[in-house]
Design brief:
The complex is a heterodimer of chains A (550) and B (113). With 550 residues, chain A is of the alpha+beta class. Chain A contains 11 helices and 27 strands. In chain A, helix 3 packs antiparallel against helix 4 (168-182), helix 3 packs parallel to helix 6 (279-325) and helix 6 (279-325) packs parallel to helix 7 (374-394). The longest helix of chain A has 47 residues, at 279-325. The N and C termini of chain A lie far apart (109 Å). Chain B is α/β, with parallel strands linked by helices and 113 residues long. Chain B has a single domain (2-108), classed as STAS domain (Transcription Regulator spoIIAA). Chain B has helices spanning 26-38, 56-71, 83-91, 104-112; strands at 2-9, 12-21, 43-54, 75-79, 99-101. In chain B, helix 1 (26-38) runs parallel beside helix 2. Chain B starts with a strand and ends with a helix. The chains are: A alpha+beta (550), B alpha/beta (113). Chains A and B meet through strand 24 of A and helix 2 of B.
Chain lengths: 550, 113
Amino acid sequence: MAKLITIRGPTRGREYELDELCLLGRSPACQIYIGDLTVSRQHARVTSSSGKWVVEDLGSGNGTYVNETRITQALLQNDDEIRISTSVFRFVADEEPAGGRWVNMVTVLAGNEPGLVNTVTQARVPVPQAFLESNTSELTIRGDLQRAHRMLETIYAVTEATANVLDPKKLFNQILDYLFNIFPDADRGFIMLLDPNNQLIPSAIRRRRGEGFSGGLVVSQSVVGQVLQEGKSVLSTGTANPKKTASGATKMCAPLAAGGKTLGILLIEGRVDGRSFTQEDLDLLSGVAMQAGVAILNAHLHQLLLRQSRLEQDMAFAKQVQRSFLPSEPPEVPGFLFSRRYNPVFDVGGDFYDFIPLPEQRIGILIGDVSGKGVSAALLMARLTSDMRYFSISEISPARVLARANAALIAGVQDNMFATVLYMVLDVPRRLLTLSNAGHVPPLLRRGRDGSVVEIDEATNLALGVLPDAVFDEFAVELAIGDGVLLCTDGVVEAKSPIQEEYGFSRLQRAVASASPEAMIEGVIKDLQRHSGSTSQYDDITMVAFTRRT
Amino acid sequence: MLEFKRDQLDDVEVLTLKGNLDALTAPELRPTIDELVANRRTKVVFDLRDLTLIDSSGVGAIVSLFKRVRMLGGDVKIACLANQPKEIFRLLRLDRAFDLFDTVEEARGKFKK
């Protein structure tokens, strides 16, 4: 087998048997790792093609030299010297020497005199078979140490490279990149993660050559089962019998786990013409999978945090949008007094209200509640407010205004959104209030003459956004001096006591006891607080009140 | 907590909901709703006997299925409405959109005519 022998540099004395592909560089995932800062992470590679060996520079910073000539690519001859920064490797061509086998030289030779080359040459003498057998245990131990070292280096490299990668896609690619470097015979790599239903979903797939796939992934269910259930790595022949793993393993599968939870599997499939995977390869894959599991869990947690903060940003934006649509001051209307209260629980509630100045001394009064919360609710509310303003100017009848708003809502929003709206028009000179209600909490009318309070349940129709051809009716009532009207949202009526009892209409009716709109609202708020006691406000509370003064 | 069950009785889909249908649980119903629509199931009955609580997001989920099934020329009927959900349906005047029935059998029977 062809080799590279380090004759100068940090790894001097080491011999590397050349596989079909051998990477040289500062990345510990390289087959020939050079711990030297002047060396690029993937500096050069040595590949073979039909018995010829070629060295290529991989766009390194400081170049690759063969016999002191800088190259981009060169055919290697026996005894050529490859220099990468301060490291020099001698290429030994593939010749089977007579009289014995080459020992895989692992001893780092002592001494730093230039005479080192000779020492290495001495180490290359053929070793008789008998000697090999008698020293097997020692050599095995050395081999194990070397392997353990390689494995630690690799795992360290994976940890280092993945520790701060928080984008799952990048992370998966990074992990697969490393595995392809470590396993030159890998043809395809898969990261498959368990979804909430415990189904394995391919999350990243990498193929060494070309794009796309020549075939689907064939992996025995029992192999995957063993990996997932027992948390064990498995070598597989890819045939129906997963027990045949001793030789000819073409697939390796390792569990991805972290925090005591199985996240999925890592699967490496070998080239058809490549060498079989060994137990050593599998151990290495398990080590990488362990680190990868931790990194994947981290990335997942980070995604959750990110989503959370994005949501918070959206909410803050929605809050701005929403507040900008609510009138800042109650209107000034001759002979009438207006007041309103807006207490949202969440940053973005679904409640809204509006006062719309209309021609001929009329004023539109609107209160509503949009289903859902957050951005979609805020946008729907914004849209509904502008629709209502537009339709209330072009239509005189409140029922018509709601019918048009309903049609617009049906046509243009998400199908799971709807809204309740109570819309009334106050004709100031005639003291006439005409209202139409789309599924909203009915308004209360307090008569000034006797202080009686009634619920105006008339003209209550289907909520907006449910049925395209919904029919709306309207109801008119004349307001006498001292009469007051209170509009509220369901957060008021449905407010709970500590024993989960709803505030309800009868309590609300009793609480509406004052002649001024401000005191009306204040009275209800106080009574609500008494009812709720220590229970925190669960829903938005919005109220609008007005009274006829003269 | 929401539990839901999907049964197919003849050509009628019966969705039985148990527990709370609110902002937290309504998204769980979404895939089923999408699937019903994708499969053009035009006869749907909600069995709400064991539904203890519904909020506007929950109503939104049912309304969503209703709107989409109606677009396909079908209908969604409601059976066994009780307690708080019944009150909410009343407040929103949803009886003007949905046919309400005391039993699932009655609701299914209406589809056959």
